[in-house]
Amino acid sequence: MKPLYSAVLICIMSLSVIGNGRAGPQAAEQFTCTSASSTRLISIYRADDDAGLGRCRVDYTKDRSTKTVWSANGDYAYCVKQALRLVTRLSSSNYSCTPSTVEPPDAALPKGTPR
After folding, report:
1. What pLDDT does residue 68 have?
2. Which position among 37, 66, 96, 101 has the lowest Cβ density within 10 Å, counted as fewest Cβ atoms?
3. Could you give phi then psi for residue 106, rounded to 5 degrees?
């Protein structure tokens, strides 16, 4: 297994256990890939409610245009796998990809704080 793929896989597995406490699909993991002046964004959305366990989708943003490129009902691992394949492909094309966790702006507020 390539070192980059292994590092990304460990990172995404770690990020996938973080919940944000909100119902509905929320971007939990994201990769920002840059090469010169070009930036690509890969976002993994996961349903964060009891009824949507495993529901997910992967969005790809290129040239300010976002498209859903994969989705699954009941197989979050599929979305992670597909996103990692795209990150690996971009990395082998001279893009530098950085993972991050995306949380809603109010996620850091203590419970009971008015919104």
Report:
1. 96
2. 37
3. -90, 10
